[in-house]
Recover the amino acids of this structure.
């Protein structure tokens, strides 16, 4: 049941709107629950991923729906946009590919056969030879254009799946091939990628975003440019649109249409493995993976093996859209930001801080005019000269993560200029806060003060536990510097994002047919993390083929991350730079080799060795889970972390006789997927899975260390990893986790460059067993 006090502020804004029609929601529902018959005609469930669902609700039925005990909480569908890349010179779009443009290593045996690559984006040129086979037929299984048609006119062409989503038009492979055989394929299909195109410098058409992205991931090289990473994969494309308004060619997508697009791809893929690329995003939200759309993405890849979703990290590193600082008791802090004059779009500033703190917030319009003061649990309208220019909400508890949440909405045509938020620490135990700016479109408001930072600048959608997030580096330069725009992590709860970097500067790929011109061979260069992500999506398609079995998402992540080329030492220059680098640079050949090696191991008796665990671990780990304070919260914002995990299997893989790794991400997600099914099989599936003895530790794992006479003497959450080069060592940066007998201590996160710090951990490399023989750094 969603109460009004902790309701999503954006949902409250939508309810206050006097408009008519349906609202698109993302909600957490009781497992296997269906809408009562009394909601027929007033609400419907569109797509579902476990307990996360998208819905359409008529305004007159909204309050009744939110009052149902089976509806845990709901969020209004939030807009997403393309990750607009910086301008790149386009004087010669037909220039030959250079060494930095080649995406597939020479001699690579795999092309993504039997794997579906889905791209959720805007504008695909289905006439491009890059997306057609040797006979000229399309490689697309289907194209779903979510625009144009209201629900009453939703359609699907012959051979396409039924349009159970209720909007847009679905074009089957048959319909696309028939259009390709016609004189004007675009007119015959009534779809043109130019609808999503725009002009750049000098009036030249840039080319649609989606065409460029799809070619990088899976183009076949027949379009006049370099081959994509997975040229033999089958393709699905979804042209995104807003669910709240599906009319108009320039409409972008939102979180509900995004989840429904994922549902569409999985429907088309059937039993085949698939990887989805989402070079889309926004910048608001808590940045800790707790939004319902991110939880839906996590469930989509968790529910079945052989699935992966890849996100671009965002191009916000230098956007001045994030600020953070720390308040002391009774202290104050001013957040200054500039709103463009004559602004035709709504803007939003969100602030998150710990539940144990209490701030008051004052909102000042240009000219230092105080408009409102709010404390936790309050909201206020912003009135200026008799007109409402915005509203501010101060939630005492966010349903997403349990934290405090200040959400300021500034309406279109509000006064431009220097706005201020004054924060006062009324009751402070921690004091840290993070703020992000979001807007619908156009020039972005920017933070002005020195507390703006480049860290924590990843996009809204890419902070989940199991999505794979990609930053951009420049492959044209020998030193592989990061793109100046590429966003930095970590997530607000301390996990590394992005995890991977890939080429994303000056990427040569297919350019869509401009409006009014005939189809042909065109290529262009674009830059952005949007261009980096499809390199990784294509690589995962190759890994799925090489593995010859559906890989669980945890295994896909482990194989990919362990294969990365480690960052250069000269790139580790400070916290912001470190958190742009992830675990390393994409190495396509090494990732495929890792999947091949796993396939060979699957066929031997030596695969995935498990060492028996000293019986002492059994009780000690159970005690750890039972004694975790409150809801088991590790420093950060996942209150769900260790709670409710009371049963530990008799045997666990372990690193060595005195240390054990818990895969915390799995613990979190398994708890979120709990149900009332208490069958033996279900209970066994719900138990935490631990890393194998020869497994590589990963950020987000919890390391437990035991002294024989004392039991577990510390636990640490791994926040980052650093290779120690020729010494054959792996250094783990840790933050303390509460454990029995230790009391509750708040850990201070450190952003290490690989320096040895007391309390961190080292694993030594063993040729026979991998990373083993853990030791604690004592000084």
């Amino acid at each position: 049941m969603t109460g009004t006090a902790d309701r999503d502020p954006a949902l409250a804004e939508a309810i206050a709107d006097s408009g008519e029609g349906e609202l698109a929601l993302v909600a957490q529902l009781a497992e296997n629950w269906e809408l009562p018959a009394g909601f027929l005609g007033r609400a419907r469930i569109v797509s579902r991923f476990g307990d996360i669902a998208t819905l359409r609700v008529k305004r007159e039925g909204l309050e009744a729906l939110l009052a149902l005990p089976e509806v845990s909480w709901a969020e209004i569908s939030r807009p997403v946009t393309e990750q607009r890349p910086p301008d790149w010179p386009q004087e010669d779009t037909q220039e030959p590919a250079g060494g930095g443009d080649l995406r597939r290593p020479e001699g690579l045996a795999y092309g993504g056969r039997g794997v579906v690559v889905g791209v959720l984006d805007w504008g695909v040129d289905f006439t491009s030879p890059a997306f057609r086979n040797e006979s000229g037929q399309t490689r697309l299984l289907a194209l779903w254009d979510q625009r144009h048609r209201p629900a009453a006119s939703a359609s699907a062409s012959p051979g396409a799946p039924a349009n159970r989503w209720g909007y847009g038009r679905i074009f089957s492979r048959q319909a696309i091939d028939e259009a390709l055989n016609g004189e004007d394929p675009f007119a015959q299909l009534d779809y043109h990628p130019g609808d999503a195109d725009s002009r750049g410098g000098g009036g030249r058409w840039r080319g649609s975003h989606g065409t460029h992205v799809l070619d990088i991931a899976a183009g076949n090289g027949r379009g006049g440019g370099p081959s994509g990473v997975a040229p033999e994969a089958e393709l699905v494309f979804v042209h995104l649109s807003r669910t709240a308004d599906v009319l108009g060619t320039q409409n972008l997508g939102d979180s509900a249409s995004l989840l429904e697009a994922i549902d569409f791809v999985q429907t088309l893929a059937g039993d085949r493995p698939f990887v989805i690329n989402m070079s889309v995003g926004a910048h608001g939200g808590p940045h800790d993976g707790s939004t319902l759309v991110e939880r839906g993405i996590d469930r989509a890849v968790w529910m079945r093996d052989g699935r992966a979703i890849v996100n671009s990290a965002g191009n916000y590193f230098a956007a001045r859209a994030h600020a953070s600082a720390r308040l002391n008791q009774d202290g104050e802090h001013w957040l200054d930001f500039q709103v463009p004059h004559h602004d035709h779009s709504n803007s939003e500033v969100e602030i998150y801080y710990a539940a144990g703190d209490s701030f008051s917030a004052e909102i000042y319009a240009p000219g230092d005019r105080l408009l409102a003061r709010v404390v936790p649990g309050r909201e206020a309208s912003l009135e200026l000269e008799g007109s409402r220019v915005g509203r501010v909400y101060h939630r005492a508890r966010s349903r997403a993560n349990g934290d405090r949440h200040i959400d300021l909405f500034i309406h279109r045509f509000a006064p431009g200029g220097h706005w201020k938020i004054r924060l006062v620490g009324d009751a402070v135990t921690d004091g840290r806060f993070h703020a992000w700016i979001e807007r619908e479109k156009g020039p972005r408001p920017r933070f002005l003060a020195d507390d703006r930072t480049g860290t924590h600048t990843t996009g809204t959608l890419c902070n989940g536990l199991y999505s794979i997030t990609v930053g951009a580096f420049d492959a044209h330069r020998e030193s592989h510097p990061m793109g100046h725009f590429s966003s930095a992590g970590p997530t607000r709860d301390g996990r590394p994002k992005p995890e991977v970097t890939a080429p994303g500067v000056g990427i040569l790929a297919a350019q869509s047919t401009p409006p009014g011109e005939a189809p042909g061979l065109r290529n262009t260069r674009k830059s952005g993390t949007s261009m980096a992500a499809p390199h990784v999506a294509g690589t995962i398609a190759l890994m799925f083929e090489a593995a010859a079995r559906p890989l669980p998402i945890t295994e896909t992540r482990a194989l990919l991350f362990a294969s990365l080329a480690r960052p250069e030492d000269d790139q580790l220059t400070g916290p912001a730079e470190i958190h742009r680098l992830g675990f390393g640079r994409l190495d396509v050949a090494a990732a495929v080799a890792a999947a091949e090696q796993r396939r060979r191991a699957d066929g031997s008796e030596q695969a995935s060795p498990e060492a028996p665990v000293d019986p002492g671990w059994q009780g000690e780990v159970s005690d750890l889970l039972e004694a975790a304070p409150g809801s088991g919260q590790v420093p950060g914002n996942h209150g769900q972390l260790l709670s409710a995990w009371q049963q530990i299997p008799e045997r666990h893989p372990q690193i060595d006789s005195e240390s054990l790794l818990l895969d915390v991400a799995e613990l979190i997600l398994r708890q979120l997927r709990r149900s009332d099914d208490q069958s033996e099989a279900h209970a066994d599936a719900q138990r935490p899975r631990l890393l194998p003895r020869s497994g590589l530790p990963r950020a987000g794992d919890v390391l437990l260390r035991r002294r024989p006479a004392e039991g577990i003497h510390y636990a640490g959450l791994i926040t980052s990893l650093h290779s120690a080069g020729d010494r054959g060592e792996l250094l783990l940066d840790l933050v303390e986790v509460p454990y029995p007998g230790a009391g509750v201590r708040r850990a201070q996160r450190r952003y290490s460059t690989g320096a040895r710090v007391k309390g961190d951990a080292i694993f030594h490399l063993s040729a026979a067993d991998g990373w083993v023989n853990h030791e604690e750094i004592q000084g």
